[in-house]
Design a protein that fits this description.
Keywords: Membrane, Transmembrane, Transmembrane helix. The chain is mainly α. The protein contains nine helices and four strands. Strand 2 and strand 3 form a beta hairpin. It is extended, with a radius of gyration of 23 Å.
Length: 227
């Protein structure tokens, strides 16, 4: 029991330390800003198109919201090890696939539009969980891959080739275009120096604490400049 408690304390400590790059900046933000209820979106429209999601993932396209090439690998490799999976491992694999499915428009998001879940704004945010479960199942797969020296070398070459392919595909896609939502402007490198303003707007999601006492004036665009 003492070893279990000790290991849990170590795990919690390392988790806090390794995730500090996320929670520490967030903590700084919350000290100076009030986080309000985010603006509402139509979840079904913001969910990913399944073909765009898969094609973008295979290409490791950085300008679309996808699970990336590694996410696709986390779908394919476990298929060859399903018979060796324990029940917990099958659940992790199921969660990896399910969280990707939930980010797409195949899931009927319109039924959840008027529920508290709509606060997530964009269903593709669930892909963060896909990355978690996908990474876990890939680690399990590699641990189950009992290798001899020959197989170990083949595995190493395969991993290097995968990383090289992902890097090349990412560079090729990222350098070609900057794409916004479907149907909107696509800028190539030649056009990137030309900016077009479609509209001017603002959000109330994150407001500086010092400015909140003036929010009624700000809404009316009333500004006073002191000497």
């Amino acid at each position: 029991m003492s070893n279990l408690i000790s290991n849990m304390i170590k795990a919690v400590g390392w988790t806090i330390l390794l995730t500090a790059y996320v929670w520490y900046p967030m903590l700084q933000q919350v000290l100076h800003q009030k986080i309000n209820r985010p603006f509402r979106t139509k979840l079904q429209e913001r969910a990913l198109n399944i073909s765009d999601s898969l094609i973008g993932a295979v290409n490791n396209d950085l300008v679309t919201f996808t699970m990336g090439t590694i996410g696709v690998v986390s779908f394919i490799l476990p298929l060859f090890f399903k018979k060796k999976f324990a029940n917990k491992e099958k659940i992790i694999n199921f969660c990896a696939v399910t969280t990707w499915f939930l980010s797409t428009n195949l899931f009927p998001w319109e039924f959840l539009q008027k529920t508290p879940i709509q606060i997530i704004q964009f269903p593709w945010r669930i892909l963060g969980f896909q990355v978690l479960f996908g990474s876990l199942i890939l680690i399990i797969v590699f641990l189950k891959w009992k290798t001899s020296n020959k197989k170990s070398m083949c595995s190493l070459v395969g991993i290097v080739l995968l990383i090289f392919t992902v890097t090349v595909a990412t560079e090729a896609n990222y350098s070609q275009k900057i794409q916004s939502y479907k149907g909107r402007l696509i800028m190539t490198k030649k056009d990137v120096t030309l900016y077009t303003t479609s509209r001017t707007g603002g959000l109330y999601d994150y407001a500086p604490l010092d400015a909140l006492k003036y929010k009624d004036h700000l809404k009316k665009h009333e500004v006073k400049v002191y000497d």
